[in-house]
Amino acid sequence: xxxxxxxxxxxxxxxxxxxxxLLKQIKAHIQNxxxxxxxxxxxxxxxxxxxxxxxxxxxxxxxxDFFPEVIKRTTHTHHPKYVGHQVSAPAxxxxxxxxxxxxxxxxxxVYEMGMAPSAIEKVVTDEICKKIGYESGFGGLxxxxxxxxxxxxxxSARKAKISNDIWNEGYSEPLGVMVCEQxxxxxxxxxxxxxxxxxxxxxxxxxxxxxxDTSVLEESYQNAITAGIKIFAIVxxxxxxxxxxxxxxxxxSKFAKEKDLWFHVDGxxxxxxxxxxxxxxxLNGISTSDSVVIDGHKMMLMPTITTALLFKNKIHAELTFxxxxxxxxxxxEEDDWINSGKKTFECTKTxxxxxxxxxxxxxxxxxxxxxxxxxxxxxxxxxxxxxxxxNFEMATSPMSNIVCFRxxxxxxxxxxxxxxxxxxxxxxxEEGEFYLVQTKLNEKIFLRTSLMNSFxxxxxxxxxxxxxxxxxxxxxEFIKH
Length: 481
Fold this sequence. Notes:
Number of strands: 11
Distance between the termini: 74 Å
Low-confidence stretches: 325-333
Mean pLDDT: 92
Number of helices: 17
């Protein structure tokens, strides 16, 4: 067999040459985006046209053009006019941790296939547990995203609160989870994956600010009990994804204790506020929770995808996927942190722990205090600018860095305003200077911004307001004529 091809693939010299070229391109990308020198946040293309481009490129494109084209044809999260989805503009140092993880390729299912990352992950999760306020016996794990982490937490809740051996024997009674109607859809998805069905998702109504209405907890609970459903867990959102509203975790905690329910906090987006001296009060009660989810790739400056799932009692992290009968599970005497494969869906996972560790090591926890505080403050400023302008309606006052608003003019129907705001968003998307999204709340279409970029300023937001207003007024003129 001719080994020349493999020698070329693994050539250190070839690798160095390509790496240096890419690093120069990445450096230029960071400079051009963070400074705002690049005029656009994205270069919009129709889906079919983009697909055709890459089909053609596979056959006809020049090899050296691959990375430049990828950079050009993606959304630039490092641009200060990126105010779209809830993903961070990653700290550049995490490019290097991702780089090392991809090359070393230690799967981490067992200690021998991930000695350093297994130990690093324990250091990281223990540090976060302490910051949450867990006092002793805590533990956790890192996994691939909030959806998977929330599902894992609810599986842990079921194992802890339901006495029969569901893992081996299946259900013997209808089960349910309580959650606010405005919670992230992954809670619904997790419940259905677990076989709870639609009736097992007990939706607690939201208040006007889109956080859980805790005054109706008892009523929602009793309605489920009357319907023959055994509730085993309640989920608090910190915050909800659509509007950024934090649930009252302290009240939910008291209710969970009274009813002997597992109390889980979905802090995928805003759990990082535990690091903010100014905004950590939004998470009052989180230290009493049984489990918490926090995404590193949202408010903690990390690349996708890395999520921390933390437990007040570490034994729950180790028992969730244990495949022995429940009556044998109490014989675990030692902290089995070294075998990651026992604690997660993943048998193989990336060395994502390195992103957390390097940021802790180089910049300390203060970087998260400053970042979360800055972005939440900026949202308050944005609200002020919008309300000072007569053409905007707020969905609710922002509690985090998520702001929902819409262009509005008196004497126009809701359907007309919905279409106007959708048109504004589409125009902005196609122009590519700003990138923001939309959401639907109470049958109203709102423009939705997540202020994820530490280089976004009030000037950028006021420019966005003026552009939206101009487009809105143009839409009104079109309707009139």
